[in-house]
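Collaborator request, handled under Task 6.
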Amino acid sequence: MTAAAAHAVIQYAESDGRLAARIALHQNHGTNPQSWFDWLAERLGLAGDVLEAGAGTGALWSYARTEAVRTLTLADFSAAMCARLTAVPSARVLRGDVTRLPFADGTFDTVLANHMLYHLDEPPAGVRELVRVLRPGGRLITTTNGRAHLAELDAIGPAIGRPDLQLAGRLGDFSAESAPALIERWCTGVRVERYHCDLRITRVEPVLAYLESLADTPLTPSERAAAAAYVQARIDTEGAFHVGKHSVLITGTKS
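Structure tokens returned to the collaborator:
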């Protein structure tokens, strides 16, 4: 198992709490008044038979319009996530591996993968499988981040002697820079749209919660104090802890 897959298992297999903490950071401290999920939902245009792979907590489905959706299938490898997904109205929930989906070729009109393909050991295998279960003319909708996404947060771990708190190096290569060319192997009309938003954080606690959500082993009291001092110094100097984001929506059509 590579670093990407091992990280995903530790992060998500037994609990949805780590993901929820990270979603909260973005929802509560983003500089764009329109949340990520609201922005994304506006662009989906869902109809027919829909699959979301790596559906996580199902947060998207509090925003997405589903009037034209005939069937909605939500898949995730995590038992904890699947338990959450059962709360999504009218959804079929499936626990399984995105690289080996139990569906026939051409089952769905739309397949979504929202910030999840970088968790795979081999993102091309995941894209290929998602396209396989699409009908001809169906849409693949993926989202991911640029390589400099959250760089200011990634800098904290090394500064306090915890380099494991960096996302860089723990994810597969499915980034804003690399993903469009990958998707073009199987799809036409590939388009990329950026969600313009950064983070402006005026309190230490949300950053500490984010760092703790990444930690394979808990922060020691001294590490936590060092992280708090690092963030507070930036807040005192700049009025807030500013974090750059780079998130994109990438769509393509199966030929």
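The cover message to the collaborator said: "Strands lie at 48-53, 69-76, 91-95, 108-114, 134-145, 187-195, 199-201, 241-243, 247-254. The CA atoms of residues 55 and 253 lie 21 Å apart. Please let us know whether this matches your experimental observations."
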